[in-house]
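User: Fold this; C-alpha cells only.

Assistant: Input:
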Amino acid sequence: MYTFYLGIDLHLKRTYVVLMDERGEVIDQRRLPNDSVRDYLTHKVPRETYAVLEATRNWPFMYDLLSEHVERVELAHPKKLKAIASAAVKTDQIDAKVLANLARMNYLPIAYAAPAKIRDLRLWTRHREWLIGQRTQSKNRIQAALATYNLVSPVTDLFGVKGRQFLKEVMEKRLRSAASRVVADNLRVIDQLDERIQALKEDLPLGPEQEKIVKLLQTVPGIGRVHAITILAEIGDIQRFNNPKALCNWSGLTPRVRKSDRIEHHGKISKQGSPYLRSAMVRAAMVAARVSPRWLKVYERLSPRCGKRAARVAVGRRLLTVVYYMLKNGQPYQENYEQIKR
C-alpha cells in the first residue's frame, strides 16, 4: 500500500491529474499544461505516491518525469484497461480517477515501460524500417513508370549496375520527359536513402551488455546484426515473460483459437504486439530455411500441410521460442540441440 495515488490522463498539450489518499478520497484534481507538470509534482505531490498513466503516444516524457518525483510509476495497458473500466460517461476527470482507483485496489493492467536505452534502440530500428519503406516506394514508382511504356527490365536487379544502364538508355530513348523526370528523381531519392540506411547501420552505439546480447542472437541461423538489434529492442527485458508461449503470444505470431463446447477453430495469427518483431522473425525464418538443415526440415514438413507462407510464420514462431531460451539462459544457438539433449 502507498499513502497517495496519482491518476494521470495524458494528452498532447494538457494533462488532467487526480491525487487521492489510500482511502480513495480525492485530495486534489486539476487540468495542467504539460509544461507545468514538473512544478505541480514538485510542490503538490508527495514522494510516497504511486502514479499511473495510460500508454499513449507521448508517455515516455511523462513517465521519466514522474520517476524523478514519486516512489512508483506504472503504465496502464490501454486495451485491457478498456475491458476492465469501460463507462458510458467518459471524461478526462473520470479517466484519471479510474486509473488512481485501479492502482489503489491493486487491479491495474500494467503494460511494459521500456527503459530509455531500449526506447532509443526502438527509435533507431523503426526509423531504419521507415527509410527502407520509403526506398521501396521509390522503386515501385519507377517500376510503375516503366510499366506504362510496356517496358520490362532485362536484368534481375533493376537498381544494380546493369539495371541502371538499362534505365539510362530508356530514359534517353524510350521515355517522354515526364516519365523520365519521375525515374531520375526517384533514383536520386534511392541513392540518398541508401546512404542514410548504411550510415544508420554503422553509427549505432551499443552498450557492452547490449553488444553481448546482439552477438548471442547472431548465432541463430538467419539472424544478422540488424535483426538481432531489432529483436533486442522490441523484446526488451526477457524476464518479463514467464515462458516462450507468453513471448510468442505477445509478438502476435500465435494463431487465434475460438472454442465452444467441443468445437475448436484455429484461425490466422493474432498480429497483436510488435509488427517489427514479427517481421524480423519471419525474415529470419526465410533465411534459416535456406542455410540450416534443421529449419529446412521443419519448413518442408509444414509447407505441404499449411502452405509456404504459413510455414514461414510457423518457423519464425519456433525460432522465437529458441531465442527466448537463449536470452533466458545466456547460451548461444546449438544446431544439434536435440541430439545433445538425448
